[in-house]
Amino acid sequence: MGDNRIDVVVADDDPAVREALADLIDSHPDLELVGLAINHEQAVRAAVDHRPQVVVMDVHMPRGDAPSSVRAIRDQVPGARVVALSAHGDRETVLDMLAVGAHGYLVKGTPAEEILEAIVRASRDQFSMSAELLADCAEPLRRAERASWRFEDLVGNRLEESYLELLGQAPCGVLVVGSRGRVEYANAHARHMFGYGSAELRDKRLRDLVPERYHTASEQLIGRVFTAPSAMTGRRRDGTEFPAQFSGGHLQGRQPRGVVFIADLGPLRAAESRFRQLIESSPDAMVIVDEQGRIQAANNRTEALFGYDRDHLIGRAVEALLPDQPLTISLREWDDSAEEPLGHSMELVGRRSDTKQFPADVSISPLRTEEGLLTVLTIRDITEVQRAQFVLERSLELLEVTDRDRQALLSHLVHAQEAERGRIAADIHDDTIQVITAASLRLQQLRRRLRDPEEQRVMDKLDETLKLSLSRLRQLIFDLRPSSLEHGCLAGALRGLLEQIRTETGITYRLEDRLTTSPPAETMALIYRTAQEALMNVRKHAHAKTVHVQLLGLDDGCLVRIVDDGEGYNPLEVESRPGHLGLSLIQERAQIAGGWCRIESEPGSGTTVEFWVPLGDAPGAPPGPLGSPEPPEGDTQP
Any idea of the CA torsion for 609, 613, 615, 618, to the nearest 10 degrees? Predict the structure, then answer.
């Protein structure tokens, strides 16, 4: 064996491909076959035993995985170079092999001369890959370069002008106070409320707009980030006063400025009589209680509910109606002028005049008046509500059990479907592609022995037919089991599908992935198959030029939006036609997963398909071949 001979080990689990590669290597004067292997374990052992310069390895073989085998060969036989030969040409598989140090990646169906050239180049420590694969693997770098941009700061005068324009539309009076404590801006409500013109209010201090007794309180509103509403009195230009509610805050901008909101409470006086009418007309019992917890007023419904005359109730403690319970009205805590009290509700037990008790929902609301702080109790008998709630809870429990069963069934159905797709794809790869690859290699060997040009032309056409068959079979494998989906990358799988549609039809696409979490395997498969059905409708029927696909995280789920600029259609007319099952399948898949689907279209306006499915883990999901999730990819466009 001369010094210029290149020792080669061939590893492929298909006998026909393995023997065809062996014969091809034997036909080359500078190559010598020194070992054969039928799985990853034997490939590493043959490399260690024979110390070849090049190992030609099938990526998908039993008893191991390709990246681990490449690492083992590089560690134990540093001089060996690995050339991958596979039926799979997807980006993830290629990048996985290159990441561990493979010196070449060829797709089965590559011409025999290119295989021999790749072996020779690998022995020289040179890299080999088809231009199509190289362009596909470099696409993420081009997208990253296109996506770079610089965010400019937009905060400034225009933002402040927007704030002032917004404040001008406020339904109450608004004053903007500068750092010197002077009014710089007043909206129309404030000018009307105080009786001043715009120029007259400017440079006034807030204390000029309230009586002297409120000077200190008004000054406390300025310069604070936020102050709770406070009841004070405003003073108009003519000296008259009106009850008002003041609150303060901070206006964002380049300079520190305060903002004061004023609400005129004068109309509330006229509303007091209407308030009493409202109490009387309420369908619930309403009781007004003073600061000592004694009943000051009660409506007709209170008499009917508790069986007392209202004259009998006036002046009595509210405990007569709601005895022996922590009512927690907290009247003393509410009597703080710095903070406005907030109401709340609670479930208590009411007692009627005949001592019978009933469950009651009690709403407790504070009411400030000139006489002091009062409390309004709204009391409702919820006996029937509690009964209905019990029935509802039992119904919800039944629905939850049904939903869990449905989710479990969905998980098993999706898993079984994907497992069957995977089995078919594996059969195609392990049988049909291998046989056609071997036949292609044999055919190319035969062609080199022919001298008649006509016979060579026939052989060339036959070789092109075999290559077309291999290409279509590889595409079929991708359709049945996208490798990106196996790697847990939903966006990658959809990108592969969109790229296929672009190649076949010329429809350009834009894909946006804004998911922050990766869906479970079964949910990811369901999302992909549902989107695939919608995109097939675009390819077959839409006559579109572009399609826009978005993956969005929404309400603990995934929202998929597919928008095309095609011809559009009348959904009611098309969906009622026999044979148009695609749209129904999209809606049914989303509903089975516990989600929803919406389709909008009209002639001449394109079509929008939206569907949402929850991202919760599918219960009882059996382990499947889809792999572990990867982080989602960013926004892309071809």
Answer: -140
